TrEMBL record:
Phylogenetic lineage: Eukaryota, Metazoa, Chordata, Craniata, Vertebrata
Record family assignment: Belongs to the OPI10 family.
UniProt superkingdom: Eukaryota
Residue stretches making up the Hikeshi-like N-terminal domain: 6-126
Biological role: Acts as a specific nuclear import carrier for HSP70 proteins following heat-shock stress: acts by mediating the nucleoporin-dependent translocation of ATP-bound HSP70 proteins into the nucleus. HSP70 proteins import is required to protect cells from heat shock damages. Does not translocate ADP-bound HSP70 proteins into the nucleus.
Keyword Cytoplasm listed: yes
Species name: Sarcophilus harrisii (Tasmanian devil)
Protein name according to UniProt: Protein Hikeshi
Length: 197
């Protein structure tokens, strides 16, 4: 039903079922892992109204598991990439795995998937820095790029009195660059992916 992928390692497609609705994948040598991908195999969808909460668990200094909610997979969102490198020393959160006896060693972390009602998933809050890709980061990059371009182009601005005639050079009025800049910003705020069309 689920798969787990870490860069540079073989794909895991056989999860250990620890309860009727709970599955785990082992992540050996977890200290060297930055990101993990959790996905549905496409062979068995979630029942209607159900989805899967995805947790990361690592052993604390005493060997006890610390569980942190990364996010969710659903029939509508069958895969997700999570950044786990910054979570290794964070606080644990409530989790559905309770005190299950899951075999583990000090260098092995786990990804846990709990099948739950979508209504319950909507009330859970994942760890803030686990999400990787988002339109917001793209929008932020684009905004910084626009600012940098406008500032760079403006730094060469001269008045007509300061211009020296040169027939081989083409000049673009600064107001044209400003108009393009404002247009691009407006379109980006309306639809961050407008440039794809």
């Amino acid at each position: 039903m689920f798969g787990c992928l870490v860069a540079g390692r073989l794909v895991q497609t056989v999860a250990q079922q620890v309860a009727e609705d709970k599955f785990v994948f082992d992540l050996p040598d977890y200290q060297s892992i930055n990101h993990v991908v959790v996905f549905m195999l496409g062979t068995v969808p979630f029942p209607d109204g159900m989805g899967g909460s995805v947790y990361f668990s690592y052993p604390d200094s005493s060997g006890m598991p610390v569980w942190q909610l990364l996010g969710f997979v659903t029939n509508g969102k069958p895969s997700a990439i999570f950044k786990i490198s910054g979570l290794k020393y964070g606080e644990g959160s409530q989790h559905p795995f309770g005190t299950m006896s899951i075999t583990r060693t000090p260098t092995v972390a786990q990804i846990g998937i709990s099948v739950e009602l979508l209504d319950n998933l909507a009330q859970l809050t994942p760890v803030g820095n686990a999400a990787v890709s988002s339109v917001d980061s793209f929008t932020q990059f684009t905004q910084k790029m626009l600012d940098n371009f406008y500032n760079f182009a403006s730094s060469f601005a001269v008045s007509q009195a300061q211009m020296t005639p040169n027939p081989s050079e083409v000049f673009i009025p600064a107001n044209v660059v400003l108009k393009w800049y404002e247009n691009f910003q407006r379109r980006l705020s309306q639809n961050p992916l407008f440039w794809k069309t």
